Amino acid sequence: MKKSPGTIRKLLTFVGAYKVLLILSILISAFVVVLQLYVPILFGHCVDFLIGKGKVDFEGLNHKLIWILILIGVSGIGTWIMNVINNRMTFGIVRAIRSKAIRKIQTLPLAYLDRKGVGDIASRVITDTDQLSDGLLLGFTQLVAGIVTIGVTLYFMFRMNIWVTVLVLVLTPISFFVSKFIATGSFKMFKLQSEIRGQQTALTEEMVGGARIVKAFGYEHRAKERFDEVNEELRKASEKAVFYSSLTNPSTRAVNSMIYACVALMGAYYIINGNLTVGGLSILLSYANQYMKPFTDITSVVTEFQYALSCAGRVFEFLEEPDQVPEKEEELGKVSGNVEVSAVDFSYVEEKPLIESFNLKIPAGTHVAIVGPTGCGKTTLINLFMRFYEVKAGKILVDEKDITDVTRESLRLNYGMVLQETWLKNATVRENIAFGREDATEEEIIRAAKESHSWSFIKRLPEGLDTVINDSSLSQGQKQLLCITRVMLTLPPMLILDEATSSIDTRTEMKIQNAFEKMMEGRTTFIVAHRLSTIQSADIILVMNEGHIVEQGSHKELLEKKGFYSNLYESQFAGIEI
After folding, report:
1. From the CB of residue 216, how many other CB atoms can be counted at a distance below 10 Å?
2. Helix ranges, 247-277 (H)
């Protein structure tokens, strides 16, 4: 990702939704700045009213002081209104970007989500957008005010003394060079910092999420070393970023002090020659200070904005990832469950084919078991049925309809899926069970829970169905039971059971197998299993190896063939190594 006008242009598309507020903020900012810059003129007049023994003009002094108080009060109210507007714009823009990022996750192909770390995606959606909001808020608050301050200050200074103003302008490029140096260096460092922080977030999520595995394999020391390496890289990048950004204040202060001294010397010369009053010099000194202050502020804004832009670039990079293949608008409707796979090719990596010329025809109501060694393509085939991945060639038909010709949602509503990997949201047990059927009654939920044998532990929870759970509240077996209950509540025409009872004890598994048998009656069912004892009653057993069906038939027929399946079966029960 490079710093480019492209990132700013993309950001401006979101800012455009608030153009009315932006214009109003600019106008109020300009108005406030003019009021604030007129105050030094009034103070200068007050100084002149005090010059000379016995010549104090109290009436004029009081008049000017009243106006000073009025201008300060009005500018304070204007600043408050401007800050309210800026806050509303900033957080509205960030909310829109973050909402789009969340929606993007729903439209990204699973291949991208499988490839990218959860921590990296979360860092882009949360941390980077937070940094973007900080940069935008600072920009809206100070950038416009700084630019207006420079313009108005120069106007007033020209009216006071042309040559003093020319002197200030001649010295101004020094500030620009300082700003450019700091901005260039800080952008590179802040960009690197945001990238490393994303890696650190991903690593932290990985280690915390797999804490049990880390401890079980004694990986704590290596995990600490990996984190220390990333942490050290972040420290170095952060130090360099802070170093460049910390140059802002002393550098600009040094430039300001030099200009202030030059204005004082030239002003004193004009006072001696009678071309300038003491009050006039105080006004010019105030304006010289006011004129240079925006350069300090703008440099700080630019430094922060560089960081914000680097974060925005990462967010927009995520938002511009290609969506999953567009779908057609036709609804599949409820199906009987006929599935046909015709000459399907698929590969995760282009040069390494996994499934080639795959053909399969499954009548409605058939119970199909898919077995084979690890990596042979069992789960991949399931992902293709659900259209989590797109086939490279060929087609998959459900009730003679190509699944690419119907919406993904209507296709997936016809499948019930129980996976080895469980997923529950942070919500009540009731909400987790009714995830696929929000209109389910309590009686239906309880009946499904009893059929899946999860009711026995649900009713022991503190608040039963209304107990709020998260990923660590239940055992793996209990979570899997809830996932089974979720499917039993929806009862779609087709089922996918991918090691659905892998985390459940043998006694409960036998009961659930009976519930499965009842649930599978009349439904096309695909069963992925490593324990071959659980699929002996399947109508058809597909034996896969290296992406191809090498054998198919009933359990008895395949054993009689004394082929690949027979070797797999005997290896489980006789300890034969294949």
Report:
1. 9
2. 248-272
Closest CA to 169 of 181, 186, 151: 151
| C-alpha–C-alpha distance, residues 468 and 425, integer Å | 10
- Collect all residues with Cβ–Cβ distance below 8 Å to 389 and sequence separation of at least 6: 109, 110, 111, 346, 380, 383
Tell me the C-alpha distance between 382 and 394, whole Å. Answer: 16
384 inside domain:
no
- For residue 407, the Cα-to-chain-centroid distance in whole angstroms is 26
In a domain, 34, yes or no: yes
Closest to 445 measured CA to CA, from 464, 427, 462, 472:
464
Structural domain that includes position 151:
5-319
307-335: average pLDDT: 83
Q: How far apart are the first and last CA of the chain?
A: 49
Domain membership of residue 519 (yes or no) is no
Cβ–Cβ under 8 Å, residues 563 and 555: no
* Paired sense of beta strands 367-371 and 540-545, if any: parallel
Query: Which among 387, 397, 389, 381 is positioned nearest to 340, based on CA atoms?
Result: 397
pLDDT score recorded for residue 578 = 40
Contact (Cβ atoms closer than 8 angstroms) between residue 113 and residue 105: yes
Sheet holding 415-418, edge to edge: 415-418, 494-498, 524-528, 367-371, 540-545, 548-553
Tokens of 378: 């069992």
Which pair of tokens denotes residue 411? Answer: 């296709």
Q: What SS3 state is found at 345?
A: strand
113 within a domain of the structure (yes/no): yes
Q: Which residues pair with 340 in a beta bridge?
A: 361, 397
- Total domains in the chain come to 1
CATH number for the domain harbouring residue 70: 1.20.1560.10
From the number of C-beta atoms within 10 Å of its C-beta (0-12, 13-18, 19+), residue 431 rates as middle
Ramachandran area for residue 369 (φ above 0: left; ψ -120 to 50: alpha; else beta): beta
Rounded to an integer, what distance in angstroms lies between the CA atom of residue 549 and that of residue 487?
Answer: 28
Max Cα-Cα span within the chain = 124
Q: Average model confidence (pLDDT) for the chain?
A: 80
Give this prediction's pTM: 0.62
Percent of the chain's residues with pLDDT above 90: 3
